[in-house]
């Protein structure tokens, strides 16, 4: 499998705080999160077709509320899941579902062109497919002067 590097700016902070979230009281069900949520990701490599498929869970998010951007070889997935305005905010005894902004980034292999990336969304699952490597990217020799 190809070596893929993920850009997650808050990875170290998450690792530092993780031990504090193991108490018996589930703080997340009592206090709503005000931070940016990170969608879960599955990454699959198909060596025969030279393709990588990234699948992101975005439950309750509409296709129109998802944005995909590429910047300096990094694919940025951002979305927003808005809470329903049907129910009164203070009427909940338990509220485990999370609402708010979601973001995740994925470093793309070198040489991938924007037109090589395919995205589709169905049933709250975003699927992005792109080549593992670009056939144009062959090693180049540099002559020494």
TrEMBL record:
Q: Which InterPro entries match?
A: A-crystallin/Hsp20_dom, HSP20-like_chaperone, Small_HSP
Q: Which domain of life is it from?
A: Eukaryota
Pfam families cross-referenced by the UniProt entry? HSP20 (PF00011)
User: Mind listing the UniProt keywords for this protein, alphabetically?
Assistant: Stress response
Concerning SUPFAM superfamilies, the annotation shows: HSP20-like chaperones (SSF49764)
The keyword tRNA-binding is assigned to this record:
no
The name of this protein is SHSP domain-containing protein
Q: Which organism is it from?
A: Agaricus bisporus var. burnettii
- Provide the organism lineage as a comma list: Eukaryota, Fungi, Dikarya, Basidiomycota, Agaricomycotina
